[in-house]
Design a protein that fits this description.
The protein has 19 helices and eight strands. Helix 15 crosses helix 18 and helix 18 crosses helix 19. The chain folds into two domains: about 210 residues, Glycerol-3-phosphate (1)-acyltransferase, CATH 3.40.1130.10; about 200 residues, no CATH class.
Amino acid sequence: MRKNYLWYNLFRLGITKTGLQFFYRKIEIVNKEKIPKDKPFIILPNHQNSFMDALVVCSHMPGFIFFLTRAGAFSTKFMNWFLRSLNLLPVYRVRDGLSSVTKNNAIFDECVEYLKKGYPILIFPEANHDLRRRVRPLSKGFTRIAFDAEVKSNWEMDLQMVPVGVNYTEHRRSRNKVKVVWGDPIPMKKYQELFEQDERKAANQLKNDVASEMKKVVMHVPNLDHYPAMQVVLTELENEVDNYVNPDIVNKNVEKVAAVITEDEIEAGKQVVEISNKYDISIKTINGRKKPWALLLLLSPLYLFSWLNNIIPYLPVRKLVNTKIKDKAFDASIKFVMGLMLFPAFWAIVSLILWISGIDSGYILIYLGVSVLSSMFFKTANLFLRESLTKRRLQELKNSNPDEYQSFMDGIEKLNELRRKAL
């Protein structure tokens, strides 16, 4: 047993996996039977949502897993110890300096040794994150580790490359659905002959094959010029979330829209997304979300309690995300980590105050239990306020800049018409 086995699994399963069950409404794992059973493998997920991608994948599969992350996270002695205790390994990029990049040699050798021992390695082949729903060009780092592992084992390792798609209904917010789709493993053995002839061609072929398989397990919009219109048509105007977190469905819809989209509709998509971002106006709110009103009315006391009980610890999280974090791909990660700390801490403080006030311990335990269970309602309760704010912003836009408002509304209608025409 590895010396950090208990700590690693306590953190991965006891803290992270449990926390994710509260943070997301549902995490669905698809094609888990494709995970290689008795062969070493490298896990290759798409990378849209910062740390959440690795947390979701690693906490929902068995075994002892190592994964590579940017070296900047290991900036202090404590963080270096803490991250390595959780099996994270630093990988250096050119922006870190050429002298730092040479440190990757030792890290890659370490990865090969773990693969020889049968431990999976998780690597993000895109080497950076981006909230857009598409597969970006792949880096060559993962190909080097894969070929090194096979060469050092005289091509007897039978290493498998396994693409994974992590699909979110909404990247930046909690209580949404995540669908993790495992793809077909790619055996490294198929590249042996080509590698022995031309190492560069073999690496490029591996990158191309992995990219092709990744595009089957996530939504992929090939043409970046089409992306804003696709984003609105296939996600913002779609009420059935399964239609855009299911790669089989959404990629067929991408093809259908691409076949009929016009230049005018492409420009409308760019304009609508630009105005939405500029004024922080949710297109989903304007389009109208489906709401189970009967259930909402029945559970309204829980929603009200959840909002009142959690708004205080949520405020510093919202302030940090809205004012300090420039890269929005970190929003969910910040909310998850801070939520794990601040919400229980606040409940504990309230419980202590109640105890000091002489409240019976039985009632305090009930408060704690209801706090934990009702926390799952907080996002929905807060959503009503956010939707009200969106409508107010839309009205302010209409009053202050009627031409821009009309362009926004006309663009949404034009994209709705594109949706009806294509789908």
